[in-house]
Every structure is written in structure tokens, then in C-alpha cells.
Amino acid sequence: MTTKIHETEIDVDAQVPLVRITRDFDAPPDKVFRAHTDPDLLTQWNGPRSLQMRIDHYDCRTGGSYRYLHIRGSDEFGFHGSFHEVRPSELIVQTFTFEGDPDGVALERITFTDLGDGRTRLIATSLVDSFAARDAFVASGMEIGVREGYERLDEVLASSA
Amino acid sequence: MTADPLSRVFAALADPTRRDMVARLAAGDATVNELARPYNVTVQAVSKHLKVLADAGLVSRGKDGQRRPVHLEAEVFDLMTKWIERYRREAEDRYRRLDDVLAAMPETATEGETPPTSTTHQKGSSS
């Protein structure tokens, strides 16, 4: 166990279809914020490791928009959304749509809280419009189109009835 | 009630009393009376909680005559915690990469650098 690592916490809300991620960083809010808004920095850490990220545009300001692709071999998965409210080093509110499900949309809120001593607490929530969508989101581990978890649960539930 | 199985599991575990019951059952089967004992609630109230847990597939009732011990379906429980854990680990992986990015970043944005808020970037080869 490394003491410097602040393990990510996941909170799956039972009342509203949202997932909350909490993580502390050994960097001040302006830096953590910049790593979320500068496309060159973003591509260095965002997205699943197995996929390449290519940014089409990333205009992170209130009223701006973004689109990027995750690429695995010849498969391309597009994502886009709008930046609803952006306050430097404090807050990003954005929408998120997977282009494979163009009518679906998540509302995401990322807050950057100054913990002092050059540290920042990041809280990222994703709110979707149904529990089924939220749970698919969690069950997929944010990867695309992974549904075997549900099939497995169906099997387990069927056999334990 | 929401129809999909995972939502039922999450909803069932949203209640602290039910979470507590699940924790007790993880140590071994128990009767309804045994489960009711530590709480200031009636056996009826406990039965109601158990019905929610059973509907979610988290517990089952034994066929041992009158006792009908309550049994935790550990496999269903594990499956759910594994999903959340996998999701958590994905996020943790991502944020460890962000740790590295942050460590390599200069203290302040370089003077004259294009403001990140207005750039249109192409990363990698466009096929």
C-alpha cells in the first residue's frame, strides 16, 4: 500500500439514478481543473486504458461543447456533450452522450474543492434518467456495450429462485 | 418498483437496517426472531425487510420446519459488489494516470500558451 494514493470512492445512490465518484489529489485545484480542460492533458489520462482517445473538439467553457472518440482497432465510439457551466478551478457541469445511444444523456457535475496544502478533492457525479441506465453504466465499468453482467445476474437469480 | 434486477439489489441495500441484516447473515443463517432481536422492531417489520431482500434475490428462506432460517445468497451480493468494485477500479486507474499528469505539470500555465478553453485538437492519426 502506497500512502500517497487516495483511493477512489464510489457512491451509488439508491434514491436518484446517480453515481458519485470522490477522489483526492496531491495538486491544487487550478492544476486538477486544467487537466480536465486542456485536451493535450486530458487525453493522457481520460478513458479506459485499452482505448485510444482522439479529441474532435473540446471547448471547455460555459456554452461550449466537446466531442471525442474512443478507438479500439477499427472500432470507433463517439461521445459528445455541452458545457453548461464552467467556473475555473471550481466547477464543470456538462452533458454526456454516447453516440451509440444518441437519445440518452447524462448530466455530469465535477467539483474541485481546495483541501489546502496543495491538495484537491474531486467529486464527479453522473445523473441519468433511469435506474436501469445508471446500473448499466456501473455494471459496464464505463466500458462500452458490456452487458454480460446483467445476463450473469439473470442466471444467478434464476438459479437461486 | 423498478424492474431490473440490479436496481432491486441497490434499492434493497439502501436501507441501513437491511444492510445490517445482510451483514449479520454473512456470518451465518439466522431465524426471523434472531434477526429481530437486536432491533427495536417487531417481527412483522423484520419480515417486511426480509421480503424486500428476498425479492431482490439477496436472501432465501430455508425449509427447516418452523425455523425457516434466512440464508444470504452470497453470490448475488458478491456480483453486485464486484460490479461496483470494477467500476471503482476503472475510475481509480484513470485517476492514477491523472496523478502522473499532475505531477508532470508545471506549476502555472505557460505564458502565451493557447488557452485550453478555445482550442480544437486532433489527437492521434485521423483515419
What labels describe this entry?
heterodimer, A: 161 residues, alpha+beta, Alpha-D-Glucose-1,6-Bisphosphate, Chain A, domain 4, eight-stranded antiparallel beta sheet, disordered N terminus, B: 127 residues, mainly alpha, Arc Repressor Mutant, subunit A, two-stranded antiparallel ribbon, 5 helices, 2 strands, 5% strand, elongated
Question: In summary, what is this structure?
Answer:
The complex is a heterodimer of chains A (161) and B (127). With 161 residues, chain A is of the alpha+beta class.
Please provide a written account of the structure.
The complex is a heterodimer of chains A (161) and B (127). Chain A is of the alpha+beta class and 161 residues long. Chain A has a single domain, classed as Alpha-D-Glucose-1,6-Bisphosphate, Chain A, domain 4 (2-Layer Sandwich), CATH 3.30.530.20. Helices cover 24% and strands 42% of the residues of chain A. Chain A is built from 4 helices and 8 strands. Chain A has an 8-stranded antiparallel β-sheet with strand order 1-2-8-7-6-5-4-3, with helices on one face. In chain A, helix 1 (29-37) packs across helix 2 (39-45). The radius of gyration of chain A is 17 Å and the shape is globular. The model of chain A is unreliable at 1-5 and 141-158 (pLDDT under 50). With 127 residues, chain B is mainly alpha-helical. Chain B has a domain at 5-75: Winged helix-like DNA-binding domain superfamily/Winged helix DNA-binding domain (Arc Repressor Mutant, subunit A, Orthogonal Bundle). In chain B, 54% of the residues lie in helices and 5% in strands. Chain B has a two-stranded antiparallel ribbon. The longest helix of chain B is centred in the C-terminal third of the chain and has 31 residues, at 74-104. The two termini of chain B are 47 Å apart. Chains A and B meet through strand 1, strand 2, helix 1, helix 2 and strand 3 of A and helix 1 and helix 5 of B.
